[in-house]
Amino acid sequence: MTGKDIAKEAQIQVETNDSTLLRKKIEKLSLLLIAGLAFGLPLVMRSPTYLHIVILIYFYAYLTTSWNMVGGFAGVLPMGHAVFIGTGAYTSTVLSLQYGISPWIGMIIGGVIATFIGILIGLPTFKMRGAYFALATIAFAEGMRVMVENIEYLGPFQLNGPRGLQIPPLNTGLSNFMFANKEPYYYIILVMLILVLGITWFISRSKLGYYLNAGGEEPEAAMALGVNVSRAKLIAMAISSFLTALAGTFYAQFSLFIHPKSIISLDLSFEIAFIALIGGRGSIAGPILGALLLRPVSDFSRIYFGDVFPGLHLVIFGVVLILVMIYQPRGIQEPLTRIYEKIVDRIVAKYSRGVTA
Amino acid sequence: MKILEVRNLVMRFGGLTAVDSLNLSIEPGEILALIGPNGAGKSTAFNCIAGLYTPSEGTIQFNGLVINRKKPWDLCKIGLARTFQIVKPFASKSVLYNVTVGAFATTDKIDEAEEKALAVLRTLHFESKKDVRAGNLTIADRKRLEIARALATQPTLLLLDEVMAGLRPSEVDEMVEVIQLLRSTGITIFVIEHIMRAIMALSDRIVVIQFGKKIAEGTPKEIASNENVIKAYLGDEYDAA
Q1: What burial letters (b/e) apply to B218-232, b meaning 16+ CB within 10 Å?
Q2: Considering the domain B4-239, what is its CATH architecture?
């Protein structure tokens, strides 16, 4: 290698370093921009109806992101995550109604109980593959719903069977997790969503994330490389069920009324899976994009067609799901990521040309 | 001490005895080949040693430790790695990601794991493809990836299950070089292979099995002229010849 070559190489090295730095900068800026928009939204959007819809978008994005740890990374298809939502909602509500314990504490307790249930469900079912696993989790969730519907009192705890529990809106305030307007709920779920996204990002860059992905794609090969596949899946299930239960408490405090059909329903479990499949399983952006696309569809079809054609939103989900699976089997996050990369490429190219010229 | 010692290994599936009282052992640093006609039980024997199946009878010792009931992931952590006859890449992930999964066997930190994975790719002259999706690799590269992943777990004994099947002659030569390179770094190697040219060039000793039973054992030269082996491969009519 002559001196000239080395100089050239060094030049290229510097340029690539520059462009990766620039790329990181753009990434940071766009994240900040999105976060700024999200935090500023309630200042602009005054309509409580729209705010309600956005809160539900975040709520579903949160649920799907939690689901994604098992359903996305671990490569199985859990179809009964409503169990954990129900566990979280019922635990905190019963504790606050009967014992006056703050829902914030109930939220954590619900999470811990859900973790145990998650491990209990995971232990026998993670040996199954594909559709069998999905069916087993549906069975658990439905069993749970039917049980709760038929239980008036679980020991000392009043569950009220199919009538559910109503939270009287008496003591508003942060410590009671109850507010007169929607803005506080908006910020709470937004912060929860950001936290769960952070956790997901962290896991995807860790040994656990690698092990989950490997075990999900080729279990035998993963085992031969030192991965205890079922243990990795159980850990993911524990984290996922804990986080999902927290959202249950949020929902209970937000709607102030829970009953088995609303909170442990198959519809809810399916909707989470739909959002994940359409957005893109196993990606970080997928659940958010899926929720952004599907929740408005669901809400508006309920608002406009709810009385003439109830359940239309599920039909629409089905059609969208089929179309996405045919044309974008890895979810809508893939083409969108590609477009984003292209835009960044263009900016980087423009910038570096400007520098050299 | 022998690095691997298999004594009276029997593996039955229902009424079928796939491996029948097999005895073999490997010295540290050796390359041992296991050959035999299709369906002889080679892969089954491998799967028993690698912990995928629990043997019906017999003992398997790795560095003096009985590993009959050990799980694949535990074996990997104590230095026994393997590749699969039918390659199983994590197809949607990059080559580097694939190898990093293996490297996590010896570390918990992602930076360290990635560094180790890169080092393995460098030794195998595979670094230029580190960002290629494993699903887009050619068959030769997939086999190389299998070896790279197994190597990243830092094994002392490496089981290679037909890593040359389906390769072109020039690729076979490259693979022979790779395996010799691995041996020179002190790794003991146990191969199943059908390509005789490669086996003769590589192995120190060869074990031949047929219908699950060992029919011959010896140096490549001895095996090439062994009557039982010729019969097994070519049939009884060649007995006279």
Answers
A1: eebeebeebeebbeb
A2: 3-Layer(aba) Sandwich (3.40)
